[in-house]
């Protein structure tokens, strides 16, 4: 299944706030319809499916990529759900978003694809690149790159940078100082339900 490129508001109307997908807020069309949807009894399968879809759409990954991350998390020591979230949070496109250098993860992915981002002074154009503690993230020394990032930083001042990241707004330089903890995940998600969803596939 390919990456979703359709209307984003439709997704957050169904699944709730997904800051990585879009910073828009949906307008409720009908109070009756929303009350009807919320009162409708949901099956256990649908509950797990929706939690899985939240991860997919928030981080902007394909079904195949998410299944791959679940399998990696299962092989690692510790809580599978927590390790899964850490793997997703340490993706380069998500780190750029969390530093405030992009307003959404798709926008961060575009910055990486267009070679605006450097890690430890080397250009990295792979959005799924797994960042590590002590990695420095900087911007290519070009006027266009600097202008894009400056505009994004000014627009994202309202978001708090999580504890595992440090950002110098003057130098436009980010540092990953540790692996993210569960409390700093910027998404309301029950990761155990996602692990259960994939229990027969992973």
TrEMBL record:
<comment type="function">
    <text>With S5 and S12 plays an important role in translational accuracy.</text>
</comment>
<dbReference type="Pfam" id="PF01479">
    <property type="entry name" value="S4"/>
</dbReference>
<dbReference type="InterPro" id="IPR018079">
    <property type="entry name" value="Ribosomal_uS4_CS"/>
</dbReference>
<dbReference type="InterPro" id="IPR022801">
    <property type="entry name" value="Ribosomal_uS4"/>
</dbReference>
<keyword id="KW-0150">Chloroplast</keyword>
<comment type="similarity">
    <text>Belongs to the universal ribosomal protein uS4 family.</text>
</comment>
<dbReference type="GO" id="GO:0042274">
    <property type="term" value="P:ribosomal small subunit biogenesis"/>
</dbReference>
<keyword id="KW-0934">Plastid</keyword>
<dbReference type="GO" id="GO:0006412">
    <property type="term" value="P:translation"/>
</dbReference>
<keyword id="KW-0687">Ribonucleoprotein</keyword>
<keyword id="KW-0699">rRNA-binding</keyword>
<dbReference type="InterPro" id="IPR005709">
    <property type="entry name" value="Ribosomal_uS4_bac-type"/>
</dbReference>
<dbReference type="InterPro" id="IPR002942">
    <property type="entry name" value="S4_RNA-bd"/>
</dbReference>
<dbReference type="Pfam" id="PF00163">
    <property type="entry name" value="Ribosomal_S4"/>
</dbReference>
<keyword id="KW-0689">Ribosomal protein</keyword>
<feature type="domain" description="RNA-binding S4">
    <location>
        <begin position="90"/>
        <end position="154"/>
    </location>
</feature>
<feature type="domain" description="Small ribosomal subunit protein uS4 N-terminal">
    <location>
        <begin position="3"/>
        <end position="89"/>
    </location>
</feature>
<dbReference type="GO" id="GO:0019843">
    <property type="term" value="F:rRNA binding"/>
</dbReference>
<comment type="function">
    <text>One of the primary rRNA binding proteins, it binds directly to 16S rRNA where it nucleates assembly of the body of the 30S subunit.</text>
</comment>
<dbReference type="InterPro" id="IPR001912">
    <property type="entry name" value="Ribosomal_uS4_N"/>
</dbReference>
<comment type="subunit">
    <text>Part of the 30S ribosomal subunit. Contacts protein S5. The interaction surface between S4 and S5 is involved in control of translational fidelity.</text>
</comment>
<keyword id="KW-0694">RNA-binding</keyword>
<protein>
    <recommendedName>
        <fullName>Small ribosomal subunit protein uS4c</fullName>
    </recommendedName>
</protein>
<dbReference type="GO" id="GO:0015935">
    <property type="term" value="C:small ribosomal subunit"/>
</dbReference>
<dbReference type="GO" id="GO:0009507">
    <property type="term" value="C:chloroplast"/>
</dbReference>
<dbReference type="InterPro" id="IPR036986">
    <property type="entry name" value="S4_RNA-bd_sf"/>
</dbReference>
<dbReference type="GO" id="GO:0003735">
    <property type="term" value="F:structural constituent of ribosome"/>
</dbReference>
């Amino acid at each position: 299944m390919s990456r979703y490129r359709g209307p984003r508001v439709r997704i957050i109307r169904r699944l709730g706030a997904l800051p990585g997908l879009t910073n828009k807020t949906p307008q409720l069309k009908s109070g009756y319809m929303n009350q009807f949807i919320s009162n409708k009894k949901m099956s256990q399968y649908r509950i797990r499916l929706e939690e899985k879809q939240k991860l997919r759409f928030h981080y902007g990954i394909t079904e195949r990529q998410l299944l791959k991350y679940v399998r990696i998390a299962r092989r690692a020591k510790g809580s599978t759900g927590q390790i899964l979230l850490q793997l997703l949070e340490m993706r380069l496109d998500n780190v750029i978003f969390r530093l405030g250098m992009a307003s959404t993860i798709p926008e961060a992915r575009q910055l990486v694809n267009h070679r605006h981002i450097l890690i430890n002074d080397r250009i990295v154009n792979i959005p799924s690149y797994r960042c590590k503690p002590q990695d420095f993230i900087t911007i290519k020394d070009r006027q266009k790159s600097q202008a894009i990032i400056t505009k994004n930083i000014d627009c994202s001042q309202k978001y708090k940078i999580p504890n595992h990241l440090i950002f110098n707004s003057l130098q436009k330089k980010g540092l990953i100082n540790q692996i993210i903890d569960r409390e700093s995940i910027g998404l309301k998600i029950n990761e155990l339900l996602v692990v259960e969803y994939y229990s027969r596939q992973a």
